[in-house]
């Protein structure tokens, strides 16, 4: 059942507002969260690349990678997203069996400024977007090199990290309808701008 229309927005932990006003936007306010945001996902990639050089046990490599990916999924979904960019998401099923996407967002400060550090925001989104792309590359590599035994591990990496990426994009820009309307609006503006430029050239 499609749950794209069942979206709730709730506020997140008002206690962080006063602290965020006093902090500098360029400082890394949560170094531990920033470290673990990258540690698990980068470690999983490194283990995947070097496991055949370090050991001949495929089972040990697979279990290690899946554990790292699972820890990364939980940490990013529940901890680092909330601390670094003030976002959190989850999916829940109500008593009627309907699936709901629930998004949390830290409230904007009374002065209207951003409450998250710009440095942490860059680290968060860079790690969130880059690593799933690397796992997609690994998937094509394993497929074309006929490493069938590694496909399950690579697919797990794509699914777990891709789920977090999808959830935070939905949390950032809103529902699928909002995303479609944004894309349509952008294309419309680009078309109008190009048409006006063509008319100006013709007039001159």
TrEMBL record:
Q: Which residues cross the membrane?
A: 31-50, 56-76, 123-144, 150-169
Taxonomy, superkingdom: Eukaryota
Q: Which family is this sequence assigned to?
A: Belongs to the TVP23 family.
Species the sequence originates in: Certhia brachydactyla (short-toed tree-creeper)
Swiss-Prot/TrEMBL keywords = Membrane, Transmembrane, Transmembrane helix
The places in or outside the cell where this protein is found are: Membrane
Topology of the protein relative to the lipid bilayer: Multi-pass membrane protein
Instruction: Please name the GO terms of the biological process aspect recorded for this protein, alphabetically.
Output: protein secretion; vesicle-mediated transport
InterPro entries given for it? TVP23-like
In this record, what's one Pfam family?
DUF846
- Where the protein is mainly located, per its record? membrane
Name a single GO cellular component.
Golgi membrane
Specify the protein name: Golgi apparatus membrane protein TVP23 homolog
Q: Which residues form a coiled coil?
A: none
